[in-house]
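ARCHIVE CARD
CATEGORY: sequence design from structure
SOURCE FIELD: tokenized fold
FIELD CONTENT:
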């Protein structure tokens, strides 16, 4: 049998084959172009306003009856929590490129990209910026953490008197082979795929994801590889004492007695601060590359490792490390987790914020046989602060508070920040 194929059929077939082949050379990506601001304007951009909606909740901090919530890269929301069942927003401090905060004696210390900014918050009706220490942190370009993102500087000019304060992200269809063109930046091609009564000496309490920690008269602030040290003898006018190299890919800081415990993507670094101006490395505990906050009690360090995309690891877990010998920390046991972020401890309880899998509460009386005692599902858990009577948690633009009652943990309030 003979089959006749017309010229029209051949042309149409070749057209669709060409389209299919062409589509193989393209992909949909998130293209991030930098938002640039003049340095002078950037440093004059702080504004104290009435309460506003939050864009993206970040870290939390408790100071007396106040709860402070970071709005990632936007500033800090101040909440009156004198009645935990009915918290009330009081003010918003607009601080561009802000991610971290600490408070001592009614003075709030907040980062703003490369600067440290100091605010007097003794009167919430008259919050004032009182000091700015310029260029005390490395001026890292903030990376946009979204899935499948290409950083495209394109025709954007970043001058010597400019700073990048954020990114404009749009989905585009781009030729795969052209990625190297579009991802070029000042340092060459860039491609990323990401997945707490106030007194003169009182301080507050941050969560496990904090990069700021006040110990006595010193503020320790970590960046990706250094401990930046500030003398707070004069609360209104802190003095920068410089920094020391501390390791690589540092993300968080936790204090216990005369020691700092730094969580990094490579492991945990332990520093002695008996001489507070000159921290000294004691030891390092290494693990596979992963995002890594850490909290400690008298005998153990509890480390959550988050896997995937930017964090690097293949599996998420909780690792428990024996620190009875600080010179030689040893892994005791590892427990699988789904997508953990922050964590906290109170007496025999261990709280794990397991991302979209919710808040998990364990009895840690026996670290080799953790017992799950509560699991709050159907919420997104980001970080926690265990207080004397309540537990405060942040996740998905919502502030959750739980009460310890007769060995149980029960929801006290749920406050939307939007």
């Amino acid at each position: 049998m003979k089959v006749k194929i017309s010229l029209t059929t051949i042309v149409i077939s070749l057209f669709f084959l060409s389209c299919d082949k062409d589509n193989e050379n393209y992909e949909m990506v998130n293209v991030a172009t930098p938002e640039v601001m003049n340095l002078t304007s950037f440093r004059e951009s702080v504004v104290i306003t009435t309460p506003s909606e939050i864009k993206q909740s970040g870290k939390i901090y408790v100071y007396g009856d106040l709860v402070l919530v970071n709005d990632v890269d936007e500033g800090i929301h101040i909440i009156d929590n004198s009645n935990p069942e009915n918290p009330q927003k009081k003010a918003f401090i607009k601080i561009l490129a802000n991610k971290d905060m600490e408070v001592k004696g009614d003075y709030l210390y907040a980062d703003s990209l490369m600067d440290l900014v100091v605010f007097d918050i003794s009167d919430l009706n008259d919050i004032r910026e009182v000091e700015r220490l310029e260029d005390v942190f490395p001026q890292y370009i903030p990376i946009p953490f979204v899935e499948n993102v290409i950083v495209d500087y394109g025709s954007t000019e970043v001058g010597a008197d400019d700073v990048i304060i954020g990114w404009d992200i749009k989905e585009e269809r781009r030729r795969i082979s052209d990625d190297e063109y579009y991802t070029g930046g000042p340092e060459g091609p860039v491609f990323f795929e990401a997945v707490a009564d106030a007194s003169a000496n009182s301080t507050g309490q941050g969560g496990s994801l904090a990069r700021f920690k006040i110990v006595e008269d010193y503020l320790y602030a970590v960046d990706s590889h250094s401990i930046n040290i500030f003398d707070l003898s004069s609360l209104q006018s802190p003095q920068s004492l410089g920094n020391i190299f501390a390791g690589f890919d540092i993300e968080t800081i936790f204090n216990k007695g005369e020691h700092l415990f730094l969580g990094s993507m490579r492991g945990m670094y332990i520093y002695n601060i008996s001489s507070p101006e000159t921290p000294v490395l004691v030891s390092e505990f290494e693990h596979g590359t992963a995002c890594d906050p850490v909290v400690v009690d008298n005998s153990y360090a509890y480390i959550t490792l988050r896997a995937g995309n930017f964090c690097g690891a293949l599996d998420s877990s909780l690792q428990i490390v024996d620190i009875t010998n600080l010179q030689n920390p040893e892994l005791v046991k590892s427990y699988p987790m789904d997508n953990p972020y922050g964590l906290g401890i109170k007496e025999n309880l261990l709280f794990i914020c397991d991302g979209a899998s919710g808040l998990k509460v364990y009895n840690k009386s026996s670290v080799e046989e953790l017992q799950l005692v509560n699991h709050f599902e159907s919420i997104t858990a980001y970080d926690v602060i265990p207080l004397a009577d309540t537990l405060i948690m942040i996740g998905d633009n919502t502030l959750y508070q739980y009460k310890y009652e007769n060995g149980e943990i029960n929801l006290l309030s749920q406050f939307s920040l939007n």
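CARD ANNOTATION: Residues 33 and 152 are 5 Å apart (CA to CA). The chain has a mean pLDDT of 86.
SHELF: design records, drawer C
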